[in-house]
Write a structure and sequence with these properties.
The chain is α/β, with parallel strands linked by helices and 201 residues long. Helices cover 43% and strands 20% of the residues. It has a single domain, classed as P-loop containing nucleotide triphosphate hydrolases (Rossmann fold, 3-Layer(aba) Sandwich), CATH 3.40.50. The strands form two sheets. A five-stranded parallel sheet has the order 2-7-1-8-9, with helices on both faces. It has a four-stranded mixed sheet with strand order 4-3-6-5. The radius of gyration is 17 Å and the shape is globular. The structure holds guanosine-5'-monophosphate (5GP).
Length: 201
Amino acid sequence: MTTGGLLIILSAPSGTGKSTLVKLLLQKRSDLELSISHTTRPPRSSERDGVEYHFVTAETFENMVVSGQFAEYANVYRHRYGTSNAEIARITGEHRHVVFDIDVQGAKQLMSGYPDAVSIFVLPPSLDVLENRLRGRGTETEESFRTRFACAQSETDNYINYRYTVVNDVLDDAVSDILSIIRAEELRSIRQKDVVGRLSG
Ligand code: 5GP
């Protein structure tokens, strides 16, 4: 890895398979670390505090907003989600690449604060596939499904604001597309100063 970790923003409409993608990416490259967000959403049965999210009360979240502890935050599906500055500092301090699994509003904020961030939008291959994936995961009520499906449809329009767009049709292909993006970004001339420095004695 070259000096300094990349900030890799991954956004996708709910049900695009982003969580699975992220899991596989982390397995493939040990120098990637997922940024753990804060949220006011209640944990799902399989989720643990400090692992998938830091689960906090609305009051704690608001205090963090007021005291400027978030690099970005947004309301998503009636709950609040945010990335703390401390989380970014922790991971980049270890010279690892940070992966952000965040929505389009948060991504916009991070892109403006960190213009060099590598932003990737993941699209489903079709709306039918999206609906099947959303229903198939069985974690949503009908109401929550409808909200997420409607948001997902409108969210796809945001792909153009991202540096890269990847279609998650065949999972392994999408993973390898993202790994290629990360590798290409590592090899950008601007990130090779250390190598060049060594060559010029
Ligand atoms: P879920 O409730 O399914 O875990 O996540 C819902 C949405 O919130 C997903 O699109 C996810 O990317 C987004 N999200 C998760 N953490 C953050 C965050 O820290 N900031 C923002 N802006 N969105 C987030």
